[in-house]
Amino acid sequence: MTGPVTGARRSAVTATAMLILCSALLGACGVPRYVPVSAPDTRTRIFLSRKESEDLRRGMRSYLESIQGIVDAAGENDMARVAKRAEASGMGMVADVSPAIITRLPPQFIVLSIDTHHKFEQLAVEAARNGSSGRTMDRLRGILANCTTCHSAYRLAP
Ligand code: HEC
Question: What is the DSSP letter of 88?
Fold first, then answer.
């Protein structure tokens, strides 16, 4: 294909490349294990610029907004809205990540991060096709396990 690459196509290409990278990394290094909050704080510190930290925190808050929206909509059996809220944190977000930040993040962090976006994407696709509140809660459980696993393993350096 020789036509201009649209934003949407570029996002899809980046997201696919990220998924392949993610699978390779997953095989190479595995993912961190969940450690309860009550345990001593042994989280790995991540060093980012102020702007990168702000971007990361903003992305986190939109995860949380998605979850609130998904739970709200699932409670009302509104699967179209579940899909919309989940899509907001789907693979499209990965395409916005700057390549520079990736070089400063531990591989396992990137794996968990991409896997989380992928899980939101899967939830969105399923909700739009033939979803139910029960299936949504199942998938949300997997997503929340990623949130707590990563938070128990990493923190931003002050
Ligand atoms: C790949 C790792 C990773 C995953 C997955 C992850 N987080 Fe985070 N999150 C972090 C880190 C690191 C911080 C910064 C913690 C610190 O140092 O204060 C953070 C901070 C946050 C914050 C605080 C934002 C702020 O403005 O300070 C919220 C809210 C949050 N995460 C929600 C979530 C939710 C909800 C999920 C799951 C859908 C999630 N996170 C998944 C790594 C992750």
Answer: T
Decide: 145 in ligand 1 pocket, CB within 6 A. no
Tokens read off for 81: 């809205």
In a domain, 35, yes or no: no
Q: Which domain holds residue 69?
A: 48-156
Distance 134 CA to ligand 1 centre (A): 25
In a domain, 1, yes or no: no
pTM score, two decimals? 0.86
**What's the pLDDT tens digit per position in 85-125?**
999 999 998 887 888 888 889 999 999 999 999 999 999 99
Among left, alpha and beta (phi > 0; psi -120 to 50; other), residue 77 is left
Number of domains making up the chain: 1
Number of residues written out for the chain: 158
